[in-house]
Write a structure and sequence with these properties.
With 203 residues, the chain is α+β, with helices and mostly antiparallel strands. 24% of the residues are buried.
């Protein structure tokens, strides 16, 4: 089971994101665009685990106590940079509770010998991955540059379209829950299923 932890997106914001994606998609037809149903905020990627390990993760996450978090979706960017764009994303601005939640998740899973994050938490919503012959599913979503990153022009028309436009605004939501997801890879892209729900409440 390929697992990650994330926050779902309000329907109104999801619709705005989907319209924006539809406008940008013809400008980068070779990229792998995330489906509307798959929009989410990743809090922690876990990776392959057995069903028994998934149950242990579920129990550990159920012990977390954290506050709801307010999240604003605004602007766009690229990982690792526009010249070698591997990922096209929408920016996320959040109160301190989102960072606190990510830290608590990291701490809870460290007790299960799941490695802690080495990089600072960088919330974003992925719209598209460049993809190439070596990474047919779109490549890594890591923010930092890697040895395989090379200059490419897959998002050049998207960058030109957005260069002189004001940063797009998609709305603000309050997240009152987070989820343990399973990611199933297929030829049409990743499909996500919610395995468990965890409410956010006053500590």
């Amino acid at each position: 089971m390929r697992l990650f932890i994330g926050i779902d997106i309000d329907s109104a914001i999801r619709e705005r994101l989907a319209r924006f994606r539809s406008e940008m998609k013809p400008l980068a037809p070779e990229a792998r665009w995330v489906s509307e149903d798959s929009f989410h905020i990743t809090l922690k990627f876990i990776g392959e685990k057995s069903p028994q390990q998934a149950d242990e993760i579920r129990r550990a996450l159920g012990e977390i106590r954290a506050l709801p978090t307010t999240v604003r979706f605004s602007g766009t960017g690229y990982f690792p940079n526009p010249r070698s764009a591997r990922v096209f994303w929408v920016g996320i601005e959040a109160d301190g509770q989102l960072q606190a939640l990510a830290s608590k998740i990291d701490e809870a899973l460290a007790a299960l010998e799941i490695p802690r994050e080495e990089r600072p938490f960088s919330p974003h919503l992925t719209l598209a991955r460049a993809g190439d012959l070596r990474h047919p599913r779109g490549g890594s979503g890591r923010p930092s540059a890697g040895p395989g990153d090379r200059p490419n022009a897959r998002f050049a028309l998207v960058q030109h379209k957005l260069a002189d436009a004001p940063p797009p605004e998609f709305g603000t939501m309050t997240a009152g829950e987070f989820f343990l997801f399973e990611s199933k890879l297929s030829s049409s892209g990743a499909q996500y299923a919610k395995l468990a729900r965890f409410p956010l409440q006053i500590e």
